[in-house]
Specification:
mainly beta; 7-stranded antiparallel sheet
Length: about 200
């Protein structure tokens, strides 16, 4: 699964390795609410892609690109070759004995790089003022939900029903949650249950 950073605003993506090819997929929601993979037509030979393993379950691809700088004075415009990096995380089945319903009844508190993350499922983290504005504009606002693709559960961040971020849940029980897929170290965090 693509590890989303602050510079990427698209839908979540996924790669499946088929023989010596990396086949790219988009992650979409079906009418019944389940996550499905949809091939987006991009398949690349692995031998042609410069790549490196960051950790045993994290792979970084490097893609050549051209960076354009455009200025008001056209004589200052420049182009230069550059290399873009994309990271992908291998998904593993979530380890849990809880059902999705039991998970969504729990709340957890985690921290990533001094940023606190309160995980309260099916509730909005928006302030009352923002909720009021959203209601006037027929918007749903932000919400955290549990979603599933295969045997992997995700903490999904929705904004007006649009999926902004998926974080794979490594393990979850009544006392703690372990999340993966952060764009920089620590790549994995543990949250404890809020009572």
């Amino acid at each position: 699964m693509y590890v989303k950073d602050n510079d990427y605003y698209g839908e979540p993506r996924y790669i499946i390795f088929d023989n010596d090819k990396a086949v790219r997929f988009d992650i979409e929601t079906e009418k019944d609410g389940t996550l499905q993979l949809k091939q987006n037509g991009i398949a690349e030979e692995m031998a042609a892609i410069r790549h490196e393993f960051i950790t045993p379950d994290r792979l970084r691809f490097f893609t050549k690109a051209i960076h354009y700088s455009v200025y008001r004075d056209e004589s200052q415009n420049t182009t230069e070759e550059t290399e873009l990096a994309e990271e992908y995380l291998r998904l593993e089945p979530t380890v849990t004995s809880l059902t999705k319903e039991e998970i969504q009844n729990n709340s957890y508190l985690a921290q990533w790089n001094k940023e606190k993350l309160q995980i309260r499922f099916n509730t909005t983290p928006d302030s009352e003022i923002i909720q009021e504005i959203n209601k006037k504009n027929n918007r749903e606002g932000r919400k955290l939900v549990v979603e599933q693709l295969g045997d992997t559960l995700f903490l999904s961040f929705l904004n007006n029903s649009q999926r902004e971020l998926l974080l794979p849940i490594k393990t979850i029980d009544q006392e703690k949650i372990v999340l993966k897929g952060f764009p920089s170290e620590p790549y994995e965090i543990t949250g404890t249950r809020i009572r």
